[in-house]
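Limitations

Structures in this collection are predictions, not experimental determinations, and the ligand pose is part of the prediction. Treat each record accordingly. The example that follows, with JFZ as the small molecule, is included so readers can see exactly what is and is not provided: the inputs are given verbatim, and the output is the predicted complex.
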Amino acid sequence: MNNRLVNIIWPTGFISIIISIGCAAYAAGDVGGTTPKANNISPTERVAWFEEARFGMFLHWGLYSELAGCWDGKWMPQPGHGKSWYAEWIQMRLDVPDKEYQALVKSFNPVKFDADAWAGEAAGAGMRYLVLTAKHHDGFALWDSAVTNYDLGSTPCKRDLLGELAEACRRHGVKLGFYYSHWQDWKHPGGAQPPWPEKKQPTDGEFETYWQAICLPQVTELIDRYDPGMFWFDTWGKNASEHITTQRRDQLIRLVRTKSPRCLINGRICAHNPGNDVDYLSAGDNQFPEKNLGRPWQTPATMQHSWAWHARDFNWKSVDKMIGLLVHNTSLGGNYLLNVGPLPDGRFPAPAVRRLREIGGWMAANHEAIYDTEPVDLPRPKWGRLTQRIQKDGSRLLYAYVFDWPGEQRLLIKNISGNITAAAVLETGQPLVVKTDKDGFQFIELPEQAPDDRVSVIVLKIK
Ligand code: JFZ
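Predicted complex:
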């Protein structure tokens, strides 16, 4: 008798229906929230979509993108060549004279910017949110800001790029977030400088001037005009506490909470002391912890070495590697914020597009094992990772991501609490046979070949 035929699989179609209803509900949900109900939102409710999402896109784009890592014939070094620098730091790293760097506003003209293409690539890759640098450390505002002329309004580009993006994100069911450099600002009087010993920092009074004249008004503008679903503020190291005091941290949090009760705030608003009012923590850049951080969290990560576009940065990560990192963080209850550095004309670099689409192909087949799953309290299996989803009836779906296909053609997960009642290849629904070994452990009989040459996902039903 063929066990494969007898071992009837539960209706996978049913699971997909539930998931689609879930997506539609939060794609349609209001992002910023001005309704009275939204004012009473609990921190857990506020962050729920973020925890379900698992996967987002980071975007570093600004004046520095025009230089693509090169100034005056000098290229910013890459890993393996001594120092390795990020292209968005070019003004400081290559000592570009302020006047010459700031003159880049006259040539910033992204004529090929297509917000639908951006939001579409993110959605197509399986990402549920994107976070764009509205203002990075250089101080340039990517929108027409009322409090400075160092902004999009002073460029040849007369479009409302952030507005177009906000609309496109709504159309594609992708949440929009902004990176805003609230601490370092290399242009406006009183902004913090790079935390290097040779740099002179503003006094507290000078910083307060910047805080009142630039930071608070600009965050207000971003909320009022674009209603973002999250902010990604940026500090690191001990020096930041000199300017980002607990008082200023709380003042900025209060501003966001009052104006937009649904908007998420990240721990790097005050990295050395985030407090309990932030919605999620960030692991270090390209750091993939071995443990759940215990609160909603994510890793900001690059696809190349640099965040912003660097034309000679060929350190592209492989698709297999990036899927593995997404799965790793997901298995520990964390998110993966994967960066793209768009070209100055507004297009995504071709090597990034190719990778996004390949990741999207894998996600199209396996997203059920990513979105809205939770960590499993078992030791990490040697062949890969685990996540699970608790069903309404108390049963569980356990997802086994197999990185290294076991040669012995069996998948053994020790100490599962409950009984494996069915197993299948997630992508096809192909049933797999569940057996019990001589020690009484249940195992899944595997085909000789891995179903997927990247990461195969096996789903188990447990009662
Ligand atoms: C910061 C920025 O300086 C950088 O340009 C980029 O935007 C990145 C996402 O954030 O750089 C950091 C911040 C924190 C750490 C490392 C680099 N960290 O905590 O490891």
